[in-house]
Amino acid sequence: SKELESRRRFTEAILESIPTGVISISADGRILRINRALRGIFPPERIERAVYIRDLFPPEDAAELRYMMNRARRTGLAATQLEVKSNGSSMNLAVTVAALEQDSPSGFVLVLEDTSELLRAQRVAAWQEVARRVAHELKNPLTPIALSAERIARQIERGLTPGSERIIRECSLTIAREVESVRTLVDEFSQFSRFPSSQPVP
Q1: pLDDT tens track for 154-200
Q2: Chain Cα centroid distance, residue 98
Q3: What is the pTM assigned to this prediction?
Q4: Looking at residue 38, what DSSP letter applies?
Q5: How many angstroms separate the CA atoms of 57 and 65, rounded?
Q6: Phi, psi of 69 (to 5 degrees)
Q7: How many CA atoms within 13 Å lie on the side-chain side of 176?
Q8: Which of 95, 112, 101 lies closest to 35 in space, CA to CA?
């Protein structure tokens, strides 16, 4: 009917305008329809020759999506995160799989959203917090170091007295202790930020 055709065109217009990739898939995994945003996720030539979902994704990701489809058939909806290599770069995708009908061999709709920028922003925020905390921890030992150095300088300016040796020794010990504390902190931070060494096994 005319109303049905109008509704179909309206739905297609929405699908073409949204910034998330949408793939309509038959029950056997054949690609029925894709929207424009998907072309920003996969190279056009890969999309052109893709017949099945396995033609778009690497084998391990296609297997994960098949598992998600089975789950969506039971629950109606399933979601996962994939890291897809495309045009020599890596992209993080949030994938939502919706079954058109539950408990029947109907088709699916896949919604793919590029979350790379979001993850990058989260990582930057996490490292900023780490830097803030490390800076705070580094400032703690600097105060006694600065005070001890000032105390030694005052003793020298006033001229050394019988008690000066004890004060200078105390200040030197404080400086050495706090420097060791900074060294430990730096070592711990460098261990934390380093990848663990590989331990190959047969």
Answers
A1: 888 887 787 888 888 888 998 998 888 888 877 766 665 555 555 66
A2: 24
A3: 0.54
A4: G
A5: 9
A6: -65, -45
A7: 6
A8: 112
